[in-house]
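On clarity, I found the account of how folds are encoded harder to follow than it need be. What matters is that the chain and its backbone geometry are given together, residue for residue. For the editor and my fellow referees, an illustration may be useful. For illustration, here is how one protein appears when written out as sequence plus C-alpha cells:

___
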Amino acid sequence: MSLCLAVSCSKATSTADYPQWRWKDKETPGNEYVEPNPDLTAKGWTNITLEHAGLPEGLAIYRSPEKLLDINAVAYLAVADLSKVSWDVRSIDDPKLQGTKDELKTPSQFYSESPAPVMVNGGFFYSEGGKRYNASVAVSGGRTYGVNINYASQDWETIYYPTRGVFYEKDGARGTGWTYYINENNHYLYDTPAGNSWDAKPLARPDASFPSKAEPFSARTAIGGGPVLLKGGEIRNTFKQELFDGPNGILCDSRHPRTAIGAAPDGRLMLFVCEGRNMTKDVPGFTSEEVARILKDAGCVEALNLDGGGSSCMLINNKETIKPSDGAQRPVASVVLLKEIKE
C-alpha cells in the first residue's frame, strides 16, 4: 500500500511597499475603509490583496515577513470574513473507505472544474489496486466524500485504531476534533484523541464511549487531516496520538512545506501554506508545532494540519503562490476553497 502522507514566492517587503487593501467596516462611522487584519500587518505580514484582481470583498491575502519564529519563511495566509466569503471542499468520491475510480487532480485541475478565488490542497490519500482512496474526511454541502482512515500499522501485523483530526463547520460554528469511522451509521466525533503510541500496544477500537463520550459526526463542511494543531485556543499538536510519527509518518517534528486551516473567534477563517525543502534558498519550511504557533499568533483558536510536502499548494485566482517541492503541482484527492457568498 502506498499511503500519501507527504509533508510547497517571493521576497517579503515592508507593508509600506504595497497599497493596503481596505475592507468596509460596517461599524465605522461614515463607512470608512480600514485594514481588515491590522494585527497581521503589525506582525510583519504584507497585505498583497491588490496584486490579485477581482477578489471578493471579505477576502484578503497576506505574505509572510522574511522570517517567522526567526526562521526563513515564504508563507501565505488567505483570510476570509465568513459573513461575506464561504469555504467549501471538493474531493474524489470515496465515502466508505472502499476506493473509487475517480482520478486524482492537481489543484489547478480542480480549479478548472470549480473556479474559486483561493484554493489549497486538502487531506491525505493513497492509491492501491487501481483505485484511489481518501484517507481524510471530506464533506461538502452535508454530503460525505471521504472519512479519516480508521487503521494504521508499521508491519501490517499489529493494527492500531487511531482517531485523527478534522476541521468542520456545523450550525454556523467551526471547530476541530478527532473522528473514528466504523460505518455510515457509526461515525464518531471526540473532543480528545485516543492516546495511541507506536511504543505501546494498540488501544481498544474507538466507539461511542472511548476515548471519550462521542457524538455522531455530522457537518455542513469538513476537511480531515492531522494532527490537530489548535483546539480551544491551546496548542495540541497531537501527531503522536494520531500516529503520524514513525517511519511512515509525515515528519511533524522536522521542517517541510505545510498546509493548514484555522479559525479565529471573530468569524475569520484562515488558510495557511508555507514553502520548504529549500525550493527558495535557505527556506526549510516548518514543523507542525511551529505552524501551530504561527496560526495562534495570527489569531486562530482552532486549527488543523492538512497534507503537506509535495502536496502543499495555494492558488490565488489559479496562480501559484509557493514553489511546490515536487517541482510541479501534485495530483491530490481533495482541495479546500474560498468563494464569494452569492445572495
